[in-house]
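Standup notes
- HV: blocked on the assembly model, inputs below
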Amino acid sequence: MQQIDTKTIFSAVLLKEWIKLRLLVWVPFLVLIDVLIDVLIDVYMRYKGVVASHGAAALWLDLIYKQSIHFVKLKWVFIGGGIWFACLQFLPECSNKRLRLLFHIPVAHQIPMYAMLFVGVSIMALLFLCAYVGLYGVFSFFYFPQELSSMMLQTTLPWAFAGLVAYCASGAVIAQSGVYRKLAFVFLGYVHVGILTETNGFDAFNDLGLYALSTLAWLFVFEAAALGVKEGRA
Amino acid sequence: MNELIVCKDLRFGYGKKEVLHGLNFTVNEGGIVGLLGRNGAGKSTTINILMGFLEQTSGECSILGHPSYSIPPYVRRDIGLLHEGFIQYDFMSIEGIEKYYASFYPQWNRDLYYDLVSRIKVPYSRKITRLSCGQRSQVTLGLILAQSPKLMILDDFSMGLDVGYRRLFLEFLRDYVDTYKTTVLLTSHVIQELDSFLDKIVFIKEGDIIYDGTKEAFLSSFYAYTIPIEESKKILTCKEIENIEYGNKYAHIFGYTPKEAMQKCLREFGVDEAVVLALEANALHLEDAFVGLTGRY
């Protein structure tokens, strides 16, 4: 019997994902650029004002002791980006019982399913990388010391996990056909995103590994939701 | 002869309501089999079990020797599925979707696909979502045929198609089956065009198989008679009669009873002798016989 190699299958899945994503995948990246420009202007005006009215000491007080986060808008880029990418990938894949097509192709359903998730997670990672580089550029513009920049950048890590949770939870909500299970995924996703984005200071998370693991669990939730098609609920 | 589909005492229920009451039928290698029934008869449930999207409550259902709910991936290569409503990745173009599916099937017949889709006269770069239902049916059929399957399961292939596309679909399918000796199990609401198309029929009514055999055997053993409505009221309890359909003045009675035996039966129930003597079996097409057996309401 002729076998199909995994590379061919992966190329086919990539082709499909590219077709789904190519037109609108750029939107969160454009939003990110807009947010970074906004952060740059906002931070510049704010710091200029603080230095002018209270002096440089007040600025250092704000940065080191109060740890005010002036780039909090970024978390919405990650969360919104996750939801956006999930909609682009999974709405055309799952609506109108189309998920049945995936379950009939002659390979284990996990291969195309996790290949799709791999594509989504990779784009999320790219979005985060762009945000990280952009934010680093903003901090470099103000000549922040390395220690401070590093802490500020690490603040965004849980937000990136929150974006991944938003992505996976949105995918599960779309794939799931039962209303109550959809609502359960919405609730769980909302709570988890809330926990990951609740930040009052720089680098407030000591258990990033734990949060990463809890985020990883969401990758399997999509499969669980999609299997509803096999159980005949779709 | 190889049995490609075997259903034995197949039962299924949604919650406590059982909708399939122990179906028994087989589909042997070669030929086109129609699983026909009215809306709500249990066709879609049966097809969903065959496709592996539902698991039966009890009984056995196997496809190509494997339980339908857990068909191994390599066996799925030999099964072509047409989902109700011609479900496809309609965000893809005609050429894009061919490229996608070709990656999964080692025996992919690209020429066959393009032979079929070239007839709809649209650019191959057009997205499937922008095609009409008829055009989409051609693309979907092309994808199934190009897969070179041993068995095709076509769920309600006629849905949304006008008569031209229905005939085109059937003509292409017939040619393909004759050439490649593929086996087809199909369901349809439109019986008209299937008359000269099916090799075997399975009629399903309210979750039970009410006929399983060749079309010729069915049509040569199933009779329709016409009698006045007043006379028909006398024979309501006659066991020889499968169904009575009422018109304005006449009632059409259907059953497996030949003329002489039916006349005898009518006499026993006190039907007017003139009506009995005038009794003639009407010639039936498949659609008439289908309505006669399953009823209008």
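- HV (later): unblocked. The CA atoms of residues 31 and 158 of chain A lie 20 Å apart. The first helix of chain A runs from residue 6 to 21.
- Next: hand off to the docking folks.
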